[in-house]
Amino acid sequence: MHDPLRPHRHDPxxxxxxxxxxxxxxxxxxxxxxxxxxxxxxxxxxxxDACYIVSTGHGTSGPFRFEGVRLQALIARWWDxxxxxxxxxxxxxxxxxxxxxxxxxxxxxxxxxxxDCDGQPLRRADGLVRLIVPSERDDxxxxxxxxxxxxLVNG
Length: 155
Fold this sequence. Notes:
Elements lengths: L22 E4 L5 E4 L1 H6 L3 E10 L3 E12 H8 L6 E6 L4 E5 H5 L7 E6 L2 E2 L8 E3 L14 E7 L2
Parallel strand pairs: 1-10
Antiparallel strand pairs: 1-2, 3-4, 4-7, 5-6, 5-10, 7-8, 7-9
């Protein structure tokens, strides 16, 4: 069966897809919460050192120090039921899927919704909110920038 979120190809997109910066969090019970970037920045923060971005068509850059909210912590704030996966999708439709097992076993380098890089807030042109998956080994296919929607999937 074809899975449009994983694995897939993605052409580089140097421009923000829209000016809207809110993130829609779709819960398994059908509710949607809108989360402002300021609300993410107010949550408990985690930092990841020595992160590299392998950008499609642009090569590797870094190392960077990303700071933000653990994806697992964001989920726990609004959902305490079972999950099978989490879909993270950018404003231009590019996305990835994080399996529940990955969140449960993320170790000392957690999956992060980064809002800051090297001590500075990410600008809209930099992705504003960027998914950082430290375990990624592919060609930037899990590093979603301009996060616009997070879908919690149970089933």
